[in-house]
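Q: Give me the 3D complex with NAP.
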Amino acid sequence: LAAKRRELASRYQLAFRLTGIATGSHGHAINPAGIDPKRALRRIESGKSIARLHVGDPVLDTLDFIRRRPAQILFEITPLDPIKGQPALDHIRTALEHKIHVITANKGPPALAYRELRELARKQQCHFRFEGTVMDGAPVFNLVEKTLPASRVLGFYGILNATSNFVLTEMEKGRSFRRALKRAQAMGIAEADPSYDIDGWDAAAKTAVLANVLLGVQIRPSRVDRKGIGAVAAEDLEKASRKGRVLRLIARVSRRGGRTVARVAPELIRQDHPLAQVRGTSSALVLETDTMKELIVTEMEGTVEQTAYALLSDVLTVAQSLS
Ligand SMILES: NC(=O)c1ccc[n+]([C@@H]2O[C@H](COP(=O)([O-])OP(=O)(O)OC[C@H]3O[C@@H](n4cnc5c(N)ncnc54)[C@H](OP(=O)(O)O)[C@@H]3O)[C@@H](O)[C@H]2O)c1
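A: Here is the predicted complex, encoded as structure tokens.
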């Protein structure tokens, strides 16, 4: 938002004010006149609470924060919980019940309760948007919603977890599993609990979101047949290479005889397949459609900046519908 402030004003006549920040362990702050994000960041980075920036009665907890907010939009970006979706699920329900638009990059809620949240948002005449849940700001949901009219998505497969892909491609260069994972954590791309990346949970949650939204089915992350990269050894990658293949963590959903089959597992990919070129923190999704056959969306070397762009692109969708 800060980087695009001028462009938002000149191209979209849009101004914004940050009126509240909730954290897990650094307090809460509400100020209808606006909070300076740099000041808040400085306090958090030096381990201090942001409660000093708060104006009014003390905030009890994040749900109290959401109920009392003077804002039109809530950004829900708490850590992923692929089993229960909490606390994000309660945050989003509370916001929608109070007629606040919700934009999230957290896969848990749309993976576990997409239909419920979509219906609640519709009833409350609010937006529930989640472009950042899969491949950061690369258009996936927006691509299908806005640019593929009268098309049906029949299935998909892709490399959806940047941390696993980074670890596998670093191991191809001779780095150890542990060192590669540490680097991914230092880059800020790993989940707060990195086992969610390595054990395939993050990819399973994204698989569930894609299947629920694009195929109209109801799959929970725990129902995705899931195998992570924890057991992959350097020898497996060398063996794959000798056979003209690469090993990648692939998320895959297909329909078989009216049944939806969802799977996340390391797969051998031919070296001349586009997915074999997806290295490091890059990710790619192949959409199988009834109109365009296979369409590939690739995000090259994603960072947290691209996740921020996902939230921004959703803001514009919300703002344009309000004007
Ligand atoms: N990082 C990425 O590249 C990326 C990409 C796409 C999607 N996502 C998704 O975005 C979300 C956030 O990721 P992240 O990497 O930014 O995680 P993170 O660095 O762990 O940050 C999580 C934030 O949530 C706050 N929080 C925790 N519990 C809270 C609560 N009950 N109420 C209010 N705030 C609470 C934490 O505050 P404290 O620090 O004070 O505890 C922290 O500020 C995750 O769901 C992730 O899957 C991340």
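A quick observation: Residues 22-26, 62, 77-80, 87, 105-107, 132, 136, 188-189, 191-192, 304, 307 surround NAP (CB under 6 Å).
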